[in-house]
Amino acid sequence: MISQNHMEQKTTAKDFFLHLGAMVALYTATVSFLNLIFKIINKAFPEVAQNIYNWGGGSEISMPVATLIIFFPLFILLSYFVNKIYIENPVKKDLGIRKWLTYITLFVAGLLLAGDLVTVLYKFLDGQDLTAAFLLKALAVLLVAGAIFAHYLQDIRDRVSAKCMKTRPIVVSVIILATIIWGFVVLGSPQTQRLIRADNQKITDLQNIQWQVISYWQMNGMLPQSQPALETYCVQNYCLTGINMADYEYKKTKEMTFEICTNFNKENMMSQNQYQGMMQVTYPGKIGTIENDNWNHKMGRQCFTRVIDPVTYPTQVRG
CA–CA distance from 57 to each of 43, 123, 199 (Å)? Predict the structure, then answer.
C-alpha cells in the first residue's frame, strides 16, 4: 500500500504543466484585471498631473481586456482538469508541485496585502493627499489579493466544498464580465478607442509639425511662408515625409505667429488646473515659456494658434 501511494504521488509531466499553467494563467489574469480597474479609475477620477504624450488615453483598455478574455477562461479550464485529477485520485493533493505553487501564491498575495496597507498608512502618516483614485486602487488590490489569499488558504487546508468549487468561478466570471462592460462604458467601445487612437496620432503629428516650424524659424530667422515651403523643409535629414500633410493645414498669420489645423473625431478637453498641474510635472519651472503644448480640442475642425517666443527659441541666423 505504501509503495502504491508513493507511485500515485509521483509528479508526472502532466501534473507539473497543469498546475504551473493554472498558476501562470491566474497571475496573468489577476494583473490584467487590476490593470483594467486602474485604467477605469484613472478615467473616472483623473489625477491633476498627467503625461502630456498620453493626452487622450488611447486604446488603453484593449490589452487588459484581450488578456482577460484569453487567460481567465484558460485558468478555469486548467483548474477544472486539476480538480478532476484530485477527484479521480485524492492522494494527488499531496503533490509537491501543488503545495509549492499554492504556498508561493499565498506568499505573493500576502505581500500584496501587506504592501497595500503599508502604502495607505504611509501616505496617511506622511500627510499626503489620499485621493479618491488612490483609495479606490488600494481597495481593488486589497479585495483581489484578499480573495486569492482566502481561497488558496482554504484550498491548501482542503476546506473548499464541491459547491464552492462550482459557484466561485461563476461569481468571478460575472465580476470580470461586469468590469469589462464598465470599462467600455467609461473608456469607450472598440470603435471609440480607434477614433481616440487616431486623434492621438494627429496630436503627435501636430507636435512634429509645430517643432518643424520652430526649427525652420531657428535656422532661417523667419516662419515658413506657406505649407509647401514647410513640407519641403528638412533639418538634419528629418522631414515631414512620414506625415500625411493632406490631413493638416499650416498658415502663417503674423511675423511670429502661425496656425496648424486638422479635424478630430472626438472632443478631448482638459481643465486649466489639470493642464497647469501636468505642465508642472512635465516641464518643472518652465510654466509660461512653453505655450505650444495645449492640445485641447472639440470634435471636428480645430486650429491651434502658436506664437514663437524668440527668447525660448533663439534664431541661429546672424544679422
Answer: 8, 27, 10
